[in-house]
């Protein structure tokens, strides 16, 4: 059965998520992600060289940043996937699913014949183990920071608190049936099962947790070729016994780990990389040299630059427990002080737009007027700082000093523009560049003031932006924001089966957070990648995931 809601193209993506009646009982078809048809010719073979920064993890247990997702997406097939071209949620490891009338019990039928890279069978128990591994406080040093995807599964709280060794709501009536009971109705649950952390995990992962994280054994179209070499490379090769819907054509992928996009782009121009990010300010130049993709997401020889709109919001995270930033008026003022349009015009050459909502355009419920303090208003920013007790001295300085964490792989051009905007209202901000893994530690520990972040949809619904980033206690809520009003409204929304009402409640939750400003939405940014002429049908989808199984040697 097809998804309901307004249809979209790859450039406009999702205008409405499917309601309960539309998503119950869908059957698998097509490819992952964009679902682009292979009409570009090409042949099998070849090893693609793909640029990434050093990931924090490539194991589903710890996947929380995009470099790791790019790799693990090739290694693992979760139950479902959203296809941005067919406009449907489709099966990947699941061949079908259905719910009861109240949407609090879901039953997934697993495809038969699927194999892990070690030759063992993928069964319902593989998913049960993978999900419970996320919630097990003894699996790693603590429950996974991305275990929140399973928050509504019965037994979740007991398991993460060490009171149970299994998720009570996950059972396997037979080898190919996975039954999931939720603590409340959740009509969007099949979307959740599309995210990489909810992939199946083989029994071999139980033997040595640390070793598995360096060379994960998955069930996707590619498998590890050796182990991950930190700051050097991650090599994959085609999994010839793959029995899913996304058989790969290329022999392998070399994920080449580079210091930053500028370094990688030089390697690309020298012919040493096949897929690379475009450095800030060089998009038009690159389009002129390599041609522009016809749909924004698919590269073919002569049409090699990808600039399609994606489900992504760049934002800044405050530490709301910081002595200065605990003051909501300071947080509001710092957002008002930023000239987002100038950033877009100066640096992004038409591939970014100012963010007026943490939820990006293309997801139903987005409203760019929701976060009122994202509008550029220097005078109002100064007034709020006065009201917060930070009066300017004769030189204009207000005595506010902020340390701003950013990734060492990021260009500082955008951040420098922000710093100048803050200086104009009397706030002194200093950039502190570090490895992203170090940033994650500081976020978790709460030992930071302000940090640069970005969020791409794991699944294309409002909930995937609101719950991970701002719900109390969730691992990706690095601001350590806690609002009983926000949590209650989001809980109410998630329990609501009627789609229109659910989105209305989600929007109300969004508005609560917009007033509290625990984070600063900055821009909604599109793709900025370029591909070599060595390969064709190279796809990066609207969730920024590379669909490398679709690529062919040109």
Automatic annotation (TrEMBL):
Pfam families: SBP_bac_5. Residues 89-473 form the Solute-binding protein family domain. InterPro entries: Peptide/Ni-bd, SBP_5, SBP_5_dom, TAT_signal. GO terms for biological process: peptide transport. One of its GO terms (cellular component) is ATP-binding cassette (ABC) transporter complex. Gene3D superfamilies: Dipeptide-binding Protein, Domain 1, Dipeptide-binding Protein, Domain 3, Periplasmic binding protein-like II. It comes from the Bacteria. One of its GO terms (molecular function) is peptide transmembrane transporter activity. PANTHER family: ABC TRANSPORTER SUBSTRATE-BINDING PROTEIN, PERIPLASMIC BINDING COMPONENT OF ABC TRANSPORTER. This is ABC transporter substrate-binding protein.
